[in-house]
Amino acid sequence: MYLHLGQDTVIKVDDIVGIFDMETSTISNVTRDFLSNCQKSGKIINVSMEMPKSFVLCCDKKKKKKVYITQISSTTLLKRTGYINEIANV
Description:
single chain, alpha+beta, 4-stranded mixed beta sheet, two-stranded antiparallel sheet, 6 strands, globular
């Protein structure tokens, strides 16, 4: 299954490590440092021309990390993955 992040960017749901709200997660210095290090090493892909609302951390089968920054809210992205529906059926 794939997840549309905005613009022309689609990622595999299996590669997603986490979906994070930009406003609440960047309060932590650890998260800010992580994003800064990813930016310096070229691992951040910005798929938004607007104010970012969330970021998605991905790791493929080769253990290659990528961080996608998007204007779509973390709640909307989570709903698109269908993960919430799986929890509700338990």
